[in-house]
């Protein structure tokens, strides 16, 4: 289970007790050295390590950023989404923790088995609906009287956000999420057995002046095939570059040797005004910056390669290579 975090009031009370002499710091150190017994509840089995929970948190921090951008563009109002907590709890506890009437979206995660739940607090869901329908983003909780049109609009909005979920999970698994159900009563959902461990990712969400939570429930059966990829070792390891075989280098060289390359010979350049360009007529002469006795430059893809001399061969224009143009860094000696 996660370590208990003291509130600011508890920290202040502890410091006050130490300074007044009500508590002895040496006695506290002695108690820390003694063996402590930790209670373990088998009904609340912890099937994910802290390392794996941190990996899931990193994935959904990225997802929260993507979701913030997506909803900001769709709703055209201030949106901020951030990860509040990531916990592993029994499925039954998750169902009891959410409102009796709320907005539930059930997604499949092919090719992973099982399904996940997105629970949108009604305050958030109706603020989104109000913005889409042209309102200011006010939240009016009428979840029990949700019309078919409102349900369809909400479903389409949530379904279009699946690209962000797919992108966030791409670092550990290629998934193809699909919206399967839209529900308002959590009692009708029996995703897994009540004692099955699920990971619940809670997202703090602000839409305009409305705020609430988005809860993502991920059963253990969904994450089981990719659990090894949630370790820190997987995130930190780097794949060694594959060494090419000599035959591959030979094939690459042969293919490059027969590749077609466009060569260009630059006759010269000049600069004129737009007015002069528009007034150009037949027999007008343009003075180039190239002297007739100087060699021309042959280029390939804007790269200067050779100095050349123009001429003819078999009644066709041709050039004769005079000298290679040395390239490289001008700072090199």
From TrEMBL:
It is a peripheral membrane protein. One of its GO terms (cellular component) is plasma membrane. Keywords: Bacterial flagellum, Cell membrane, Cell projection, Chemotaxis, Cilium, Flagellar rotation, Flagellum, Membrane. The gene is fliM. PANTHER family: FLAGELLAR MOTOR SWITCH PROTEIN FLIM, YOP PROTEINS TRANSLOCATION PROTEIN Q. It comes from the Bacteria. GO terms for molecular function: cytoskeletal motor activity. This is Flagellar motor switch protein FliM. One of its GO terms (biological process) is positive chemotaxis. Its main location: other. It is found in: Bacterial flagellum basal body; Cell membrane. Signal peptide: none annotated. Belongs to the FliM family. Residues 256-325 form the Flagellar motor switch protein FliN-like C-terminal domain. It comes from Natronobacillus azotifigens. The lineage of its organism: Bacteria, Bacillati, Bacillota, Bacilli, Bacillales.
């Amino acid at each position: 289970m996660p370590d208990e975090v003291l509130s600011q009031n508890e920290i202040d009370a502890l410091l006050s007790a130490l300074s007044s002499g009500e508590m002895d710091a040496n006695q506290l150190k002695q108690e820390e050295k003694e063996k402590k017994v930790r209670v373990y509840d088998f009904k609340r089995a912890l099937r994910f390590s802290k390392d794996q929970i941190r990996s899931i948190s990193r994935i959904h921090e990225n997802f929260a950023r993507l979701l913030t951008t997506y909803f900001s563009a769709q709703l055209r109002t201030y949106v901020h989404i951030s990860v509040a907590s990531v916990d592993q709890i029994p499925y039954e506890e998750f169902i009891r923790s959410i409102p009796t009437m709320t907005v539930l979206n059930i997604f499949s995660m092919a090719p992973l088995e099982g399904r996940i739940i997105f629970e949108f607090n009604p305050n958030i869901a109706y603020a989104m609906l109000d913005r889409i329908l042209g309102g200011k983003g006010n939240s009016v909780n009428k979840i029990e009287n949700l019309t078919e049109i409102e349900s369809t609009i909400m479903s389409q909005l949530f379904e279009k956000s699946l690209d962000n979920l797919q992108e966030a999970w791409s670092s550990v698994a290629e998934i193809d999420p699909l919206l399967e159900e839209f529900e308002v009563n959590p009692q009708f959902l029996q995703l897994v057995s009540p004692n099955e461990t699920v990971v619940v990712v809670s997202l703090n969400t602000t839409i305009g002046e409305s705020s609430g939570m988005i809860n993502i429930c991920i059963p253990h059966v969904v994450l089981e095939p990719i659990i090894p990829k949630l370790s820190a070792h997987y995130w930190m390891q780097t794949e060694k570059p594959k060494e090419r075989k000599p035959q591959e280098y030979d094939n690459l060289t042969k293919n490059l040797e027969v590749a077609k390359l466009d060569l260009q010979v630059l006759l010269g350049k000049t600069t004129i005004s737009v007015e002069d360009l528009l007034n150009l007529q037949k027999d007008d002469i343009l003075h180039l910056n190239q002297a007739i006795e100087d060699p021309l430059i042959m280029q390939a893809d804007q790269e200067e390669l050779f100095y050349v001399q123009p001429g003819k061969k078999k009644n066709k224009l041709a050039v004769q290579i005079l000298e290679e143009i040395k390239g490289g860094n001008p700072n090199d000696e």
